[in-house]
């Protein structure tokens, strides 16, 4: 299933395959171009997560000043996910056309002013909802992150590279839950700024960080191993036309495996996004903890990405070494089903410490499942990788919107704990379509490869 043997090219410090993709992964190296791209990719996405989820931990303060109702807060959460749906779907083709470096940096620079608006322009519930919608667009950087890693790393380590790049980035959603209340407290208590001013000034910090990472990506990033201007030169050399781009888009959209992975990622990352949005307020309201404690608990959920998502990517690669594609698929099904069961249990816990323990288990499994999903994505279509990545990545916020509308909107009369349990049940049920995924070259969960995998047609299936 994987690539041929590695060899050393004097142009690169790491061993590479015949596409110049690195065959080993050294996360603590900054060698160019492979590992430098890795660090720029995760740092850029980290800033997007930090910015998008910098608002929920301060919601108890914001709702008091803006007179937000629970319906307003719910609509704002949904709006942030709707924004990321559009950006993720657009980022796939954009990465194919312009490369992940330009698309990632451009998106960060365009969405940073929306977050800065929290400091000076938000004065009503409607404006609050609009800002969350616009800031949510920055999460489209996830597609550039995964596309970039799949362009830099070979099959044997691509699952690990994708997992670590996304996992370290996703810790931004947890760290912001911890740091934003601290930043607010310093401004309010140490600098004696009034509460209604302190929370506004706090949003200057994630805005500046997002702009800084975008500049770093533009300055030091490289799209592919061979050249920092690879995409523009490739278009000139090959005379890429609109028809070519339409063909790439069409080939990706008609690939049923991409749609199934989008459904799986919808209930997986959708549940993770929803939890990031509600968990601080959930513990604040249900167990009566103060805003700083609620922030620490919420941070523990997101910070688990530091090791859980990389572990999922590593597990995907190790299972592939032993069992091929069948191992990747079975691993994804098992881990995501366990995540669903723990989510069901989380909603049924009535004690503070019991809920915290189950939350930690849920965070590890649901985040690992996300990495296992993107351990499969690079093998669906080589030509339409950006489209498949966009479809799958877009499934996450689509799932989050559906879950929030059904279970956490103002029209839902269920308690939050019941809604959390039902979210887990949805994960279990909608993970089952994975059984329909089949690759003629490598097989599926219940069957091996087809009898004619050595034919040129089968060999080129990844180009579809």
From TrEMBL:
Q: What PANTHER family has UniProt attached to this entry?
A: HIGH-AFFINITY NITRATE TRANSPORTER 2.3 (PTHR23515)
The entry's family comment says:
Belongs to the major facilitator superfamily. Nitrate/nitrite porter (TC 2.A.1.8) family.
The record, for InterPro entries, names: MFS, MFS_dom, MFS_trans_sf, NO3_transporter
What is the name attached to this protein's record? Major facilitator superfamily (MFS) profile domain-containing protein
One GO MF term? nitrate transmembrane transporter activity
Organism whose genome encodes this protein: Cannabis sativa (Hemp)
* CDD domains per record: MFS_NRT2_like
Location(s) in or outside the cell: Membrane
Keywords tagged on the record: Membrane, Nitrate assimilation, Transmembrane, Transmembrane helix
Single Gene Ontology BP term? nitrate assimilation
Indicate yes or no for the key word NADP: no
Which residues belong to any copy of the Major facilitator superfamily (MFS) profile domain? 37-436
The way this protein sits in the membrane is described as: Multi-pass membrane protein
Which Pfam families is this protein grouped with? MFS_1
Spell out the GO cellular component terms annotated for this protein, sorted alphabetically and separated by semicolons: plant-type vacuole membrane
Q: Where are the transmembrane segments?
A: 37-55, 129-148, 197-218, 259-283, 289-308, 329-347, 353-380, 387-408, 420-439
